[in-house]
Design brief:
The complex is a heterotrimer of chains A (361), B (579) and C (357).
Chain A: E1 2-10, E2 12-13, E3 16-17, E4 22-27, E5 31-35, H1 42-50, E6 57-62, E7 65-66, H2 72-75, E8 77-80, H3 92-102, H4 107-120, H5 136-148, E9 154-158, H6 166-183, E10 187-191, H7 194-200, E11 203-208, E12 211-216, H8 218-223, H9 228-233, E13 239-248, E14 251-256, E15 259-263, E16 276-281, E17 286-288, E18 299-309, E19 314-320, E20 325-330, E21 343-348, E22 353-357
Parallel strand pairs in A: 5-10, 5-11, 8-9, 9-10
Antiparallel strand pairs in A: 1-4, 1-6, 2-3, 6-7, 11-12, 13-14, 13-16, 14-15, 16-22, 17-21, 18-19, 18-21, 19-20
Helix pairs in contact in A: 3-4, 3-5, 4-5
Chain B: H1 2-19, H2 23-28, H3 31-58, H4 67-74, H5 77-109, H6 115-123, H7 130-141, H8 146-155, H9 168-192, H10 196-204, H11 209-237, H12 241-247, H13 254-264, H14 268-296, H15 305-308, H16 315-344, H17 353-358, H18 371-401, H19 406-416, H20 423-433, H21 447-470, H22 473-481, H23 486-515, H24 518-521, H25 531-539, H26 544-570
Helix pairs in contact in B: 1-23, 3-14, 3-18, 3-20, 4-14, 5-9, 5-11, 6-26, 7-16, 9-11, 9-12, 9-23, 10-11, 11-14, 11-21, 13-14, 14-19, 16-26, 18-19, 18-21, 18-23, 21-23, 22-23, 23-26, 25-26
Chain C: H1 4-21, E1 34-40, H2 48-58, E2 60-66, H3 70-79, E3 88-93, H4 97-103, E4 106-107, E5 130-142, H5 143-149, E6 169-172, H6 178-191, H7 199-208, E7 212-214, H8 217-224, E8 235-239, H9 242-248, E9 259-262, E10 269-278, H10 284-295, H11 297-307, E11 310-311, H12 320-325, H13 337-355
Parallel strand pairs in C: 1-2, 1-3, 6-7, 6-8
Antiparallel strand pairs in C: 3-10, 4-10, 5-8, 5-9, 5-10, 5-11
Classes of the chains: A alpha+beta (361), B mainly alpha (579), C alpha/beta (357).
Amino acid sequence: MPILEIHHLTKSYGDERFPDDISFTVNEGEIVCLLGPSGCGKTTLLRIIAGLETADAGQVLFAGRDVRDVPVHHRNFGLMFQDYALFPHKNVFENVAFGLRMMHLPRTEVETRVREVLELVGLSGFEERDVNLLSGGEQQRVALARSLAPRPRLLMLDEPLGSLDRTLRERLMNELRAILKGVGVTAIYVTHDQEEAFTVADRVVIMNHGRKVQEGTPQDVYQNPATEFVARFLGLTNLLPGKVVGVGKGHAEVETEIGRLEISNLGIGNWELGVEATVLIRPEAAGVITESPLADDNAIVGTLVERSFRGGYYRLVIRHASGLHLSFTVQAISESLPPLGASICLSLRSEAISLLPRVQN
Amino acid sequence: MNEWMNGRMMNDKHLLFAYSHIRTFTIRYSPFAIRLLPLVFLAVFFFYPLLAIFRLSLAPQGHLDLAAPAKLVSTTYYARTLWFTTWQATVSTLLTVILAMPGAYIFARYRFPGKSLLQALTTVPFVMPTIVVAAAFNALLGPRSHLNLALMALFGLQRPPINLQHTIWIILLAHVFYNYTVVLRIVGGFWANLNPRLEEAARLLGADSWRAFWQVTLPLLAPALVAAALLVFIFCFTSFGVVLILGGPRFATLEVEIYRQTVHLFNLPLAATLSLAQITLTLAMTSVYTRLQARTARPLQLRPQQTTQRWPTTWRDRALVGGNVVFMVVLLLTPLLALAERSLWTGRGYALTNYSELFVNRRGSVFFVPPVEAVRNSLAFAALTVGLALVLGVIGAYLLADRKSRLSRWLDPIFMLPLGTSAVTLGFGYIIALDRPPLNLRTSPLLIPIAHTLVAFPFVVRAVLPVLRGIHPHLRESASVLGASPARVWREIDLPIVSRALLVGAVFAFTISMGEFGATSLIARPQMPTMPIAIYRFLGQPGALNYGQALAMSTLLMLVCAMGFLSIERFRYGEVGEF
Amino acid sequence: MKKQLCLLLAFVILTGLATACRPAAATPTPAGPRTLVLMSHDSFAVSEDVIAEFEEAHNAKVQFLPSGDAGAALNQAILSKANPLADVFFGVDNTFLSRALQAGIFEPYKPRGLENVPDELKLDPEYRLVPVDYGDVCLNYDKSYFEEKGLTPPQTLEDLTRPELKGLTVVENPATSSPGLCFLLATVGHFGESGDYTYLDFWRDMRANDVLVTEGWEDAYWGQSTWAGEGNRPIVVSYATSPAAEVYFSEGALEEPPTGNVLGDGACFRQIEFVGILKGTKNRDLAEAFIDFMLSEHFQEDIPLQMWVFPANEKAALPQVFLDFAEIPERPAVVSPEAIAKNREAWIEAWTEVVLR
C-alpha cells in the first residue's frame, strides 16, 4: 500500500522541464532512491514534495490526500539538505530540538527525544558542542538527528553523503540504512552514486533529463537495465550495436562487430528478426579458454591491453580486432592469463548477455 | 620561473588594489604600517582638531573652566533637548528598520525587472538637501497639495486635514525617507548572501514563516541589522537639517543646539560641552553595539546571490514584491518626482527654461557655477572620498574582524565617533588645528573629501565587517593549505566574498560625498562649488527663476547620483559575479 | 576582468586627486600676480568683469573664500586670528559688529570714497570696519491674496496682530536666522523693552494670532509663502528688495512685483554690511586697494543685482529694476550695535520663551 504517490509531476524552466512527467510511489517504511546524474531534476523533485517549490503540473498524494495546499511546516516531512543547513547560531542540542520545539512539546520530552536521536546517530554527549566546529561526518549525523527528531512521516535525504570523503561515505552508507530501517521511516534518498543507492535503497528510481527511465529493486535494475543510459550509468560499459538474426523461445542470436552472439537473457523486450538492438555484455560474462574455441562457445578473441588483480578476481580489458574495447572480470589464476599485448580467447556466457533497445539518434 | 613570476605579479596586483595610493610604501615596509593607516588618519583629521577646539573652548587660559558644564545642569532645557534627541532617534530608527525590512527581504531573495534601477533610486533621497526635500514634502502634503485639496473637496473641510508641518511626524517621516536605503542596502546585501536552506530547514521542521524568521533568519541577520540600525540611530541622533527645517523651531536636537551656540551665540564653552556630551553618548551607544556585534557574529555559509535569488512565481511572491515596490515608490520616489516635475514648471507651462538658464551667467557673477563644473567638482570629491573611504574602511574592518584581539573592542566605537560628532565643532577645530605646515590644509580643497571620508569610512567598516566576520575560517585555511600566500588568500577568498559589501560601502561613500552640505558649508572652502552648494546659492535669493534653477540643479543631482549608483552597481569583481 | 577593480580604484583616486588639486592655491612667484584672499559669507557675489578690473589694475589675483553664513564666517575669522585665513573679510553686519570689533581681528583703515557714504551707515569711528552696502529686512505680502480676499494689506507691525490676519504671517527664528534676528530687532526698536506694550507683548499677540516660525529664510520664503512656495501664508519676513527681485527673476513674466512691502514706522530693520582688513595680513597695501575699490562706483553699482542690497556709496547709480521697484523705508527701527551685542542672547531667549515654549 503506497503511502506517497507522485503523479505526473512537471516543472518548467524556460524550455526545459525538470522534472518532466515523473510518477512513482513509495510504500510505508520503504527507502526509495532517486538515482541519476547531477542536474537531472532530483533535487527539484524533493523540493516539490517538501513544498518548497510548486509544480506546474501533477500531484503529490500522501496517505491518499493531495498535499498541494498543505504549507511546508504542516507537512511533517523531513528534508536533510546536501549542505546540512545546520543553524550556525545554535548548538547541537538546539539544532536537534528545533523541530520538537516547533511542536510545543514539553521541555523534558524534548530533552529525552534529543538524547534518544543523538544516541541513535552515535553522538551522545555532543549536546553542547558548537555545530561550526564539528567534522563533516559529525555534521551529517546532527543533520540526520535533527530530521529524525520530530518523527517525520516522510524523510527526504538530498545527497546526504555527497560532501564526505570516500571511506567515510562507505562506512556511513551501511550505517544510514541501518538507522533508517531501525526507525522504520519512509524515506526518499537522492544520490548520483549507484553504489550508494544499491546499498541504501529498497527500490530505485533512475532519472535522466528530468524523466524517469527505470524503476525497480537494485537487483532488478542491475540485472535488466532498461536502456543504454541506465546500463552505462550503472557502470556496464560493454555495449555494442547488433542485429537480431535468430529468435527462439527465451533465446536469440545477434550479429555484432565481434561476431555472432548467442543470448539467453531477453529481459523484458520483444525481439523480432532483423531488429537493430544494443547488446550488453556484462563484465562477469567471460571465462578464459586456453584450448581453441568451439563454434557455439560465444567466444571472442582479442589482445589483452590491461589486466589488474582485484583480490578474488582479475579485471581485464581486451581490444578486439574491430578496435572495440571490452572489459571483464574473470576468476582466474595468474598462470592461465597471457601476458599483456598477447592474444587472449574468452568465452561469453549467454545468460550474461542481454539486448537493449537501440537509441535512435 | 614562469610560475613564480605569475604568482608574484598577482600578489603585486592585489596590493595595488588594496592600498593603491600608498603602493610603494606597502611594498617596502611591513603591513604593520598599513594597519595603522586608519588610526593615523583619525588622529590627524579627527582627534587632533577636536582636542584643539575643546582645549580652546573649555580651557582658554590653560586651566579648565567649568562654568559652561555647570550651566548645562542648572537648567532643564538641555536635559530635555537630550531626551528629545534620544527618543526621536530611537523611534526613527525603529520605524526605519521595520519599514525597510520587507524591502530588504525582496531585494535579497527575489529578482524582478527594474530591480537595480529601483535600488539606485532608493538611495537618491540620501543625497538630497533638506531644504529641497522640505519643498517636496510641502508639494505633496502641504496645505495646497493636491492631496489636501482633494480631501477638502471630498469631505467639505475648511482647513487642510493633513498638516504635518512642524510636527514630530514629519521628522520621523523624513528620517525614514533619508535612511531607508541604509537598512535596505546593508541588511539586504547581507541577507542576499545568507543560505536560504537554513530558513527552509526551519520550515520543514515545522516552523511557520514567522517563527522561521524569528528563530533562524533574524538571529543570523543580527550583525548586519544591528550595524544598519546603529548607523541610522547615529544619523537621527545628530540630525540637523531635518529637525531644524521640517521640525521647526520647537524641536531641537543636541546638534541643532551646538550649531546655534557655536555660530549664532559664539558660546564656544557651552557648545564644546554639548559636543562632548554628544560624543560621549555616541561612544556609549557604539560600545553597547560592539558587544552585541561581537556576540551575534558567527561563521556563516555565505552564498553567491545567483543561488539565493529567484523570480517571484506564486501570487504570494508577486504580491510581496509588488507591495514593497509600490511602498518604496510612494515613500521615496514621489517626493523626488514632485521635485522633477516642479523643475520643469515655469509658471506658464512646462519647459526646459530652468535647465537652460543654469548654463547662462546672466549677471556675469564670479560665483556663477556652470552645471558641468558643479557636476565635475561633486564627482571629483566623491571619487576621492570613495577611494579614501574604501581603503581606510577595509583596513579598519580587518582590524576589527579579529574578535579575539582586545584592540578591536576599543577601536570599533572609536571608528564610529566621527559620525556622532558635530560638524561645526570639527570644522572649527580644523580652523585652529590644521593651520601650519605640513598640515596647512585649512583652505585646501582636499579638506572636503577628507571631511567626507570621516563620515563615509565608518559606513564602509559597517558594511564590510559583518561579511568579513562571516567568512568561515576553513575557507582561508584550506586556501593556505593549498599553497596560497596570505596575499593570494585575500584575493582568492576574501575579496570575492567581500566585494558585494565593498560595493555597498562604495555606494554610501559616494552618496555621502555627493549630498553632504552641512559640514562643508560650515568650513572655509576655496571656490570649488559642488552641486548642493549651487542649489543653496540659488535658494538664497528671491525670484521664481532662482527657485526653478535650484530645483533643476536638484534634479540634475538626482540624475547624476542615480547614474553613479548604477555604474557602481554594474561593476562586479571579475568572474566571481555578484556575491 | 580581474584587473577591473584595481583599475577602477586607481582611476578614481587619480582623477579625484587631479581635479581636487587643480586650483591649488597659487604660490606667488616674484614676477607673477600677488594673491589677495577675500573671506566672506556665502551670500557674497560680484561680477567677473568688476573683479577683473581690479586684478588688472593691481597685478593681483583675488581668491574668494566663502565660509558659511555670516555668523559662521565671522567666527572662523575670529578663531583663526593668530594665523589669518585671508587678507580681507567682507560680511560683518551691524548685528555682529560689536562681536567682530571686540575680537580685535581688524586693522583700522579709512578708505578713499568713504566721503560718499552717508554718516548713519558708518558705525565704527575707528574705521576697522567700513560700510559697503545696506538693505532693509521687512515683511513682504502677497498682493493678489489680499485682493482676492478683499483684505487690507498690513501697513505696520501693529496690523499683524489684527484678527483677520490670523494665521497669515511667517517669521524666521531669530536664534538661527539673520533676517529673523533683524525682524526681532525691529520689534525691539519699535516697541521697546519697557512701557505698557513691549516687544514681548507684541510677540505674545503674534503667537495668539498664530504666527508661524521657520528655521531660516529659505523655508519661510520657498516653503511657506503663497506666491513663491507651496505654502498658504501671504505675509513673510524677507527683504525690501525681494519684490524687485521677483520681477527681475521672472523671465519677463511679471510686469510688476507680486508682493508689496510693509514699510510703516519702525516695521523694518536696516542691515548694514561691512568690510575690514584682517590683522596679520601680509598684503596690507593690496587689501587697502581692494577696500578702496569696493567703495568705488564701479563695484558699488554692481552690488544691487548681485546681492540685492543697496550700495553704501550714494553716487552709485541704481539699476532700472531697483529704481522701479526697490523701496527704502523712511523710518526703519534703530537698535545700536552695542545694545545688540549686549542683549542679543537675552532677547532671543525671551523671544523663544514667549513664542515657542
